[in-house]
Amino acid sequence: MAENGAKRIRLGMVGGGTGAFIGYVHRIAARLDGDYDLVAGALSSRPEVAKESGKNLGLSEDRIYTSYEEMARAEAARPDGIQAVSIVTPNHMHFGPAKAFLEAGIHVICDKPITATIEDARKLLEIQPKNGAKFLLTHNYTGYPLIRQARELVASGALGKLRVVQAEYAQDWLTEAAGDDNKQAAWRTDPARSGAGGAIGDIGTHAYNLLRFVTGLKTEAVSADLTAFVPGRQLDDNVHVMLRFEGGAKGMLWASQVAVGKENGLQLRIYGDKGGLEWSQENPNYMWFTEFGKPRQLLTRGGSISVPPAASMNVRIPSGHPEGYLEAFATLYSQFAAVIRGEGSDFERLLPTMADGVEGMQFITASVKSSQNDSRWTRLADV
Amino acid sequence: MAENGAKRIRLGMVGGGTGAFIGYVHRIAARLDGDYDLVAGALSSRPEVAKESGKNLGLSEDRIYTSYEEMARAEAARPDGIQAVSIVTPNHMHFGPAKAFLEAGIHVICDKPITATIEDARKLLEIQPKNGAKFLLTHNYTGYPLIRQARELVASGALGKLRVVQAEYAQDWLTEAAGDDNKQAAWRTDPARSGAGGAIGDIGTHAYNLLRFVTGLKTEAVSADLTAFVPGRQLDDNVHVMLRFEGGAKGMLWASQVAVGKENGLQLRIYGDKGGLEWSQENPNYMWFTEFGKPRQLLTRGGSISVPPAASMNVRIPSGHPEGYLEAFATLYSQFAAVIRGEGSDFERLLPTMADGVEGMQFITASVKSSQNDSRWTRLADV
Amino acid sequence: MAENGAKRIRLGMVGGGTGAFIGYVHRIAARLDGDYDLVAGALSSRPEVAKESGKNLGLSEDRIYTSYEEMARAEAARPDGIQAVSIVTPNHMHFGPAKAFLEAGIHVICDKPITATIEDARKLLEIQPKNGAKFLLTHNYTGYPLIRQARELVASGALGKLRVVQAEYAQDWLTEAAGDDNKQAAWRTDPARSGAGGAIGDIGTHAYNLLRFVTGLKTEAVSADLTAFVPGRQLDDNVHVMLRFEGGAKGMLWASQVAVGKENGLQLRIYGDKGGLEWSQENPNYMWFTEFGKPRQLLTRGGSISVPPAASMNVRIPSGHPEGYLEAFATLYSQFAAVIRGEGSDFERLLPTMADGVEGMQFITASVKSSQNDSRWTRLADV
Amino acid sequence: MAENGAKRIRLGMVGGGTGAFIGYVHRIAARLDGDYDLVAGALSSRPEVAKESGKNLGLSEDRIYTSYEEMARAEAARPDGIQAVSIVTPNHMHFGPAKAFLEAGIHVICDKPITATIEDARKLLEIQPKNGAKFLLTHNYTGYPLIRQARELVASGALGKLRVVQAEYAQDWLTEAAGDDNKQAAWRTDPARSGAGGAIGDIGTHAYNLLRFVTGLKTEAVSADLTAFVPGRQLDDNVHVMLRFEGGAKGMLWASQVAVGKENGLQLRIYGDKGGLEWSQENPNYMWFTEFGKPRQLLTRGGSISVPPAASMNVRIPSGHPEGYLEAFATLYSQFAAVIRGEGSDFERLLPTMADGVEGMQFITASVKSSQNDSRWTRLADV
């Protein structure tokens, strides 16, 4: 049972069989705050893996499925059927399950990017979810407490009118051609499974979503230069983007999977005419905040600041005791649980939606297109 | 069910009612890896709080107790009774429950320090646990992956013969006299509930345990200077200790609750004749490692290093995605679950034991005694 | 006298009267290693300031000039005339003095950017210096020891084939419109005195020169988006540039004078297929160096590394004792002194030249042009 | 000539011949701000080295001496004789020259520690300098701008009543026994030349002086544990000291030359009942300042802060452009020049004096004595 006395939500999972990374992360996120019980799954398209994985996770045999369609049907029919499902398959396998479960009246928690193509993303928007089934896109970095605080600081006017945004997400794990044994690398560098974007879809979209979440700026157009540095690689592994926002602010976004020495260097820096903010995911419990003409301040997660931390920040333990990636991820899960239970109207405006997913696809698509057109400025509205 | 297909362990809790901090932390730790189900509790000594708290946590009414003695008796008698219990009460209330549950054949997970007095700690050592019931002391910082790696590096000889250890744990939350509304501060500054040590028992003992865990050095004697800076405070809020170890190494330990600007500044620095290590809890996914005459290296949790990470490190997510305090805490829980299930012989030598608890009390007692004797060197063996 | 027994070089200065910033810096740089004696000056175009300033600096009256033309003539005619001159006037006043002194056979040390316009820069290239008078452009950041080491690491192949370069120089001092009393701001935001570029000429050109110096990459083309955020400002105060290098490497460059919280945030990050380097001017005695698949190493100025530090690094004091901006600046001066004395053939290839100055102007001019053409890729060769 | 129009002070040097480290540093410090001209020297006790070194530094032959006594006599007799002398010999060779020059009416700039023994230090105090000749002890770290600011912040009450001071100076260069070719190591580990203290005299005394300079606290007593870790070494290479100050504040001081990975890790942390300060020499342009209950602020050298920087801070270049060790050293030289010229009454109270030197010797002597007496608390007043 959840900490607040509410009954746990019955959860299913599509994808996430033995050896999968992100499915494991979703399960921890679902457990951490005690709001979910995993009771069903179509964990792999390979029946034997699905069964073995389900057994290991303690699912009862009749709720281990080998097809998501069957799972959606069967679970919707059970009185104790799942109330929500987590979709943790490769990108091209998001659309089908999302549609099936929403139309079955089951809430959907979907990994990002929302789909492999913008067409699929738009089709998803047109679906009529049964019984008001809701959708959560796990742009998990938006769950970091200081990211929530950054958003509030911007909204409060503490930075003044925004001028410049610098976003980056740099890794090095694809510096060399991936071996055949690297499942994670294999599908992420395969256009059939990832879509038209490589690094831009896998991590650029996280950086983009984060800057949008915190600043609220609307993107007008992008000018992009995408590169595949590793010989033979079909998708970009390094991304340079310049951005123009409505109202005149400007931005740069760098995403790379070949930046030797970077692990998960997601960083956001925002400057307005009154103040500046800087945050890095690799040490996420600290954020620089400067008011023009005053010394830099190092804000800490849940630490001293004039404005009390918002409930939405979900600070579990005192400042100085670090929380991390899994807690941020869990915050999305637990606040979505509140939304499902009808307790979370405040959270609803914070959690990443289908519309965010579509906009992420616009960003990917416009960037790819711009890059193909010699970096011509390309409007998001035009793709 | 746990990720590996094992059945979840049925868990009870003593203390940890509504508003308690450390009980909440223990519950997250128990849930995170999916190895436990909380099914019973004596969550408060006040019956109405116990009931309300138990209800909020979804315990069935017949397993909400108002006395731990009753709980030990009743749960031991049930076929579906708890297999393990978490004791999260103030220090002076550790001994009683620990004894009761161990003698009832129920595994005990006990917050630190083990007891309020060294006499109690020694009495605990003499208890005959029924059915081989096991005991875990939650010196949670030992669960940090890089702390495990530090221990392995030291043991491997990478630092050579150890010479100097610098340990510190600095906070500032007790800089001013605690208000009446601060429950956490109230019992921690009260000798009746905390024992003879203030900062030294609350956080000094963490720093001490950590240096012992990583270095394996045996402490010969301490010379201490304890101070209560805040007027009217009965227990030390700042601790200076010099240490002498068997074999000639020397150390310093600083613990403070009045160091303005420090949140949970637990830091460990170790130097041998071949290398040095430095780690800080506030950014725990990084550790400095220097081989003499070579550049400093920044090791990352689960990141690149010549030696592969040990299984005991329990790295859940890739390097660069930060894990924190709760994950380290959860590692103690999940590895103790493995021990309970008989799968964890490798973990048993790593998890903090009753003997560690007794030694922690020796450290506290010897330090207090030294401080009372004008910092005279005081042997741990003599207290 | 210099530390090595050589006679000091007789130095003059154009610009740098009382209250000027960069002239003062040049004088410290000239003194620090003992290679120069300042003996003449045309320190201001206002005669009374020139006299007062010259007197304060101890110049004898007959060597205080009010026009650089006169100074060049008179000094060239004296048997004890200056051997070198430092030009520290605003950008549009570099060309005239540089020409005059070179043609008078006097070595020139010139602040950057070389001139206010690319036309002037090219005319400078065509000058025939008398008696082989030499020219030094004070791109002072190239004098930092770790920048020299970075250059050697790249040249040695330690990073492999370069792929990505991220350069930035962010400040915040022009966040608001400059008051009339701010001389520094006044000429830097005035096209008549600065040339067509604002931030791009003042600091972008430093970042650009630095990346060129360290990587040796040749720039093919730039795509730029320049903005003047402060109302009424005529020159850019924020600069976004994407770069394409010969051989396929890509880069981004950000320069800003409105990034609240940044003081002199000059930063260079370089990634190849074997390794990565990261350096920041605000803490210049440290540099990250990562070989792919190994832990990050923190190199220190003059500290441990497999390759011994090159003489060109000019490390004056042991690692851990910080050197800074003035020492880097002084290194240019003292190595140029060696060149003047005929001892410095090794240094000659390292010190920034007139050709570097012309290329810097190409960068500025191409970026301004690209920005005016909706960020169209613009070849440096075409401006 | 100095920047302010004053005539340069004629300077001599004792010690500092070719290959000497600290003499070279003193010369840069003397040159940097333009306040001195080196015109005479007894640079080595070996005549041929003295001559060669003097020649390299451009001294005229008749002012190259082979004995300091002769130099004091001769220079005092010359109309153009030196006005000040820098003493940069090993510790045991400070007393003789200091006495000789002071009694000859020549100002003395002396490296630290003041002498090799406390007896010598006290004898120095009794000397009657001719013509009011003044004495500067180059505790150079007191010249760092942020150290000056720290002192002002403490004095202003911004930290409230001081409680805890943590000082440390850790290096690793003596981790192994020094080879015969290491001149620096040789005299520093030799009691005949260094005095009774090793690390404590060489670097512990710097840390101690710095904490005294900034806090103004008076030391009551020390409890020390000194160790020589390297086999065969006669002097301590690691120092642990606990301190008690008048008024009740407490401190710890750690100095080490065997802390692998540390270069010149001089660090000062100060906590009062209202605020805290933290500063580290290896990145000296930044200082943490926290007011209790507010976010940490990162002050920068010359950067934004409510109180304008004091003139005594001697900030030469804008914040964000790092200054370092040599600039701090030069500040002592240039402010002593002002004192010599009679312009520097404000500086006189800031510059380290003979009394500071004596107290430093008391600290060394009391610590050595305490360590020999099983760390018994030893009063500085009693040695």
From TrEMBL, chains A, B, C, D:
SUPFAM superfamilies per UniProt: Glyceraldehyde-3-phosphate dehydrogenase-like, C-terminal domain, NAD(P)-binding Rossmann-fold domains
A Pfam family this chain is assigned to: GFO_IDH_MocA
Domain Gfo/Idh/MocA-like oxidoreductase N-terminal: 9-137
InterPro entries: Gfo/Idh/MocA-like_OxRdtase_N, Gfo/Idh/MocA_oxidoreduct, GFO_IDH_MocA-like_dom, NAD(P)-bd_dom_sf
Gene3D superfamilies in alphabetical order: Dihydrodipicolinate Reductase, domain 2 (3.30.360.10), NAD(P)-binding Rossmann-like Domain (3.40.50.720)
GO MF entry, a single one: nucleotide binding
Domain GFO/IDH/MocA-like oxidoreductase per the UniProt entry, residue ranges: 147-278
Highest taxon of the lineage: Bacteria
Protein name (Swiss-Prot/TrEMBL): Oxidoreductase
Source species taxonomy: Bacteria, Pseudomonadati, Pseudomonadota, Alphaproteobacteria, Hyphomicrobiales
